[in-house]
Amino acid sequence: MLLILLAVLGHAYIWVALVNRSHAVGWPQRWVHALTVAMFVLAAGIPGAITGALFWQAGWALDEALGRLDKHIWSLPGMAQAYLGACVVGGVWAVGQWAVRMVLDLRCPKMPVRSRVSRLVPPKNVPSAEPPTDAIANCSIFRHVARGVASRVARLPLNESLCLEEVERSLELAGLPESLSGLTILHVSDVHLTGLIDRWYFAEVVRRCNLREPDLVALTGDVADEEACIDWIPDTLGRLKARWGVYFILGNHDRRVDSRRLRSVLRAAGMVDVGGGCLELAMGAERLLLAGNELPWFAPAADFRDAPPPSRAGGPLRIALAHSPDQLPWARRNDVDLLLVGHTHGGQVCFPLIGPIFCPCVHGVRYTRGLYYAAPTVMHVSKGLSAEIPLRLGAPPEIVTLTLYPPTEASGHRPTA
């Protein structure tokens, strides 16, 4: 029975891992969609086929199938036995990874993080959200069905899609000059304007963002999934305000719309596009270098060859915006002090003890949310605001205010929250 449980766990682990990795590559979105659907069909169909074969071996008698399960498994075709063996290995690997994560989490000191969670309720004069007619007029039958399913998912009782978490985190950066101590960056990611959640939600989020009066706003991709929803930007994201400006890059879902038009509308709304480039900001007597990386979906990444030297060599602090945590090696190679990313949705579905399930990255669930340190780079991973399918369990949407400080002698230049 233990082997059967490990095989079931391994089966789920293998297919979730494949789905996660497929969303980390730069393939066209329609290919990724088709591949995801195929993998879900296989993930559901393979156990059904094996179960059917077992019952056929047992003469379709339930008590016989369960009572002599070990005997019937060995009478399955060789490919089925090989697959079950791979699933057992996958189950052992999944348990091992989970155990390592638990040990590391217990060994990691937990620093206090200020946070407030609010369930956003539509104003009384706003009708219940429906997808805009022009956004779905040209959808395929599959997309219509998918949107209908997503609408029902959004109404599930435990769904946290409208539970906005307002988070404040403090961190120390070795390259931050004393004169910029207390610099605040508001990190917003994965807006996903699909039409399934109406524009009132995003307008309210922006209102709350502006109440925080940040020095900088960083928007790290996946802005719009539907062409018609680009028209929402002037009345929503276009109202973001910050002392030193609002900066953005695009993500993989932004390839589903006219990305040139999307960039144009965001720029017209007063935001600054740093995708694939470097921008040096003057903050009083100090400077700060902002860079953008939209790989693997939009090339190229920012090139630092003509940039000022890194902060450890006396140059300005380097802050980079990327959509995926997979760009951490790129940030480290280029001496980036702070990397801001999204894409993970915080795991989107997180179970007690088990942790996050879905994380569309090369490293799976290794980087799902919060702060990570890999010298010389501190990386902040946002859970984002929304998703293509508005389902969140254990991973409510968030806006995060990062307050930056120079390091103290006792901190060792590591993030403090």
Radius of gyration, rounded? 23 Å
Structural class computed from helices and strand pairing:
alpha/beta
Strand numbers in spatial order across the main sheet: 1-2-15-3-4-5-6
Distance between the termini: 43 Å
* Number of continuous helical runs: 10
Unreliable residue stretches: 125-146
Approximately what portion of the residues adopt beta-strand conformation?
15-25%
Largest sheet: 7 strands, mixed
Shape: globular
Beta-strand segment tally = 15
The helical percent reads 25-40%
Mean pLDDT: 84
> What sequence of helices (H) and strands (E) makes up the elements?
HHHHHEHHEEHEEHEEEEHEEEEEE
Outline the fold blueprint.
Blueprint: H1 2-22, H2 29-57, H3 62-67, H4 69-74, H5 78-107, E1 114-119, H6 133-136, H7 141-153, E2 163-172, E3 183-188, H8 199-211, E4 216-220, E5 246-249, H9 259-268, E6 272-273, E7 278-283, E8 286-293, E9 317-322, H10 328-333, E10 338-341, E11 350-351, E12 355-356, E13 370-374, E14 377-381, E15 398-405
Parallel strand pairs: 2-15, 3-4, 4-5, 5-6, 8-9, 9-10, 10-14
Antiparallel strand pairs: 1-2, 3-15, 7-8, 11-12, 13-14
Helix pairs in contact: 1-2, 1-5
